[in-house]
Design goal:
Length: 402
């Protein structure tokens, strides 16, 4: 019988091995981000245990970045890195314990289904072959990896280019939130579906700017939240620098150059088992029109996607109290546009659970594709002075909107 080994020296790999001496007591510890203390993401290859009952114990999980994220969580496992499933996982407030029996001598274990750098490059190549897509290298990350922008619009539309609405979607500022890049892939794939009337109508009216991987270094190096400098990119938007956070600096400069009418920032949430959005309620430039457009977007998404809900989410910021270092707040405030952070679960969608896969890459892709309908609802109102929003009651001026 081969000896058991665990390795993580590959794209997005991260784990510290404490002990492999006993298959019933394999001891592991999370590896924190490079240059930052955040520890939550893990991804490793386990070899030599075909048919053996294993017990993995992740130690000191109460010291992780989001300890509440381990409640009702199931580890993601794959035998081929294509099909991922969840295995029983228990958390006692300190140790995360996983018990399963591998069907092969090679098994891959991860916090969430990974999205590899090779898949990212393949996807950029796929998009670049479409007549409606222009790929642009905005610059490079700290370690020299390309930061790629996909500019997508109809090459046959009769709407003048300058008159088309500018829609932005960015993903994976936090590199461990791989569901965000899955969602970006699903979003773009539907946009490029020539048989989809909604995507074609949107491409005639809009120019889409998509950055599917905001943090290429962090993604490749197996970080949860930060780039290689230890910078949380979603806290850099008010004053990014080319030295500390070139990824944000480059994207922000492009946004300032071309403008923004609608903005989506895709993320994953460690603790809440739901899909939800966070808007711009607390930004200084928030108005009744802004609030009404946000409501149109949310109601349209609710009507078209059962995986989305509005009952559970983050508390709303008080007027004027939004953190303008964050992408959604800075963008919504600066451009006075509809801007949302879209959050997906690392666990499962409690509203529509799947015991086998939990929330996974394919479901994230489907959620990304579903964004087209609420975008169409909002773009439709952008083309006129204002839709009928009498269904929404707003009293007072901007400072009084919650």
């Amino acid at each position: 019988m081969p000896s058991i080994s665990i390795t993580s020296q590959f794209d997005a790999g991260a784990i510290d091995v404490v002990s492999l001496s006993d298959p019933q007591d394999i001891q592991l510890r999370l590896r924190p981000d490079i240059a930052a203390p955040f520890a939550q993401w893990f991804y490793f290859r386990l070899q030599g245990a075909r048919g053996q009952a294993l017990r993995l114990r992740f130690l000191d999980m109460d010291k992780s970045a989001y300890p509440a994220g381990w409640q009702n969580y199931g580890m993601a496992v794959s035998h081929d890195r294509q099909d991922w499933f969840r295995v029983p996982t228990r958390y006692d407030g300190s140790t995360l314990q996983v018990e399963f029996t591998p069907d092969s001598n090679d098994v891959w274990c991860a916090y969430f289904e990974p999205y590899s750098h090779e898949r990212h490059l393949d996807f950029i190549g796929y998009c670049g072959n479409d007549d409606d897509v222009e790929t642009e290298a905005l610059g490079v990350s700290v370690e020299g990896r390309d930061l790629t922008l996909l500019k997508i619009t109809s090459h046959t539309s009769e709407v003048p280019l300058a008159a088309r609405k500018k829609v932005w979607l960015i993903a994976r500022q936090h590199p461990g939130e791989s569901m965000a890049e899955w969602a970006a892939e699903g979003f773009v794939e539907r946009l490029l579906d020539k048989s989809d009337s909604l995507s074609q109508a949107l491409l005639e009216q809009c120019v889409f700017h998509v950055v599917p991987r905001m943090n290429p270094d962090g993604a490749v190096r197996g970080n949860l939240r930060t780039n290689i400098n230890g910078a949380d990119l979603n806290r850099e938007w008010e004053n990014p620098t080319p030295e500390r956070s070139p990824e944000v600096f480059l994207v922000r400069e492009k946004m300032l150059a071309v403008g923004v009418d609608l903005f989506i920032d895709a993320h994953g949430d460690e603790t809440l088992p739901y899909n939800f959005v966070a808007g711009c309620e607390g930004v200084p430039n928030y108005t009744k029109r802004h609030a009404a457009q946000e409501e149109v977007f949310k109601q349209a998404w609710l009507a078209s996607c059962p995986d989305f809900q509005t009952e559970y989410g983050y508390p709303k910021n008080a007027p004027g109290q939004a953190n303008l270092k964050m992408a959604t707040a800075w963008t919504g405030n600066h451009f006075r546009c509809v801007a949302f952070t879209v959050e997906m679960p690392f666990k499962d969608n409690a509203a529509r659970p799947d015991a086998v896969t939990g929330w996974n890459g394919e479901r994230s892709k489907a959620l990304g594709a579903s964004l087209l309908f609420p975008m169409w609802a909002v773009v439709g109102q952008m083309r006129s002075e204002m839709p009928d929003v009498r269904a929404f009651a707003f009293d007072g001026d901007a400072a009084e909107v919650n």
